[in-house]
Write a structure and sequence with these properties.
This protein has about 240 residues and is α/β, with parallel strands linked by helices. It is about 40% helix and about 15% strand. It is built from eleven helices and nine strands. α2 links the parallel β1 and β2. The chain starts with 9 loop residues before the first helix and ends in a 28-residue tail after the last helix. The chain binds 2-keto 3 deoxy 6 phospho gluconate. The site of 2-keto 3 deoxy 6 phospho gluconate has 17 residues, from β9. It catalyses: 2-dehydro-3-deoxy-6-phospho-D-gluconate = D-glyceraldehyde 3-phosphate + pyruvate.
């Protein structure tokens, strides 16, 4: 599996690499991180968001960054300056938050890695656009209005691109991925808690394979997938 190069913002990179789903995990045991990441890569999803919700999260990110170079590992549930610093120090190559504050956005700006700050309203999306941030997480996607809500934002805010997460399932994902302002969808359904508890890596691989086969999200306006060259993942990360 070709590693996803981060020579552009996260959603653009995932879209260019035809990765439609960003797997989100809550890990209780850091020792599960490497086999999990390998199963995702084997299933065709070379990306992983480890939520900073457990004491194991930073060690999990560290392990994947060191041992699974084909997996682009990032941190989710980043809600503080400390979370930003700890995640980047552990090797997170992108950061995701459920919501946005000025303090958190300033820290994300300074982090040097691509970020997906969270929004759930038009006003929050406009506030991010005002800062020049065009890629954002839409959270909690299902509860906040689902595909219909994002479809309604595409008219007035065509430059904003979203990763809907929270309540997204294998069944609801296609409804989001068909929208012009969705780059990819995120969720825990690819590596759900019960499957992780069983350490059923074959099941993760098969869920990943099914997710990877979903039709991809829309590339950024003006960019066709075939025009994007895959560059080395060791290249310097761009600022957003
Ligand atoms: O905002 C964050 O950083 C989060 O960690 C939120 C998670 O992305 C969702 O809670 C995943 O939601 P489900 O796929 O419905 O389980």
């Amino acid at each position: 599996m070709t590693p996803v190069p981060l020579s552009q913002p996260l959603l653009a990179a995932l879209s260019s690499a035809a990765v439609p789903v960003l797997p989100v995990v809550v890990l209780e045991d850091a020792a599960d991180a490497v086999p999990l990441a390998r199963a995702l890569v084997a299933g065709g999803l070379p990306v992983l968001e480890v939520t900073l919700r457990t004491p194991a999260a930073l060690d999990a990110i560290r392990a994947v960054a060191a041992e699974v170079p084909d997996c682009l590992v990032g941190a989710g549930t980043v809600v503080s300056e400390r979370g930003v610093a700890d995640a980047v120090a552990a090797g997170a190559r992108f950061l995701v938050s459920p919501g946005s504050t000025r303090r958190l956005l300033d820290a994300m700006d300074d982090s040097g890695v691509p970020c997906l700050p969270g929004v759930s309203t038009a006003s929050e999306a406009v506030a991010l656009l005002e800062r020049g941030v065009r890629e954002m997480k839409f959270f909690p996607a299902g509860a906040a209005g689902g595909p219909a809500y994002l479809a309604a934002l595409a008219g007035p805010l065509p430059e904003a691109r979203f990763c809907p997460t929270g309540g997204v399932t294998a069944e609801s994902a296609p409804g989001y991925l068909g929208l012009p302002n969705v780059g990819c969808v995120g969720g825990t359904w690819v590596a759900p808690p019960a499957v992780l508890a069983d350490r059923d890596w074959a099941r993760v691989e098969s869920l990943a394979r099914a997710a990877a086969s979903l039709a991809g999200g829309a590339p950024p306006a003006g960019q066709r997938r075939c025009e994007v060259s895959l560059r080395s993942r060791t290249e310097a990360l761009p600022s957003r």
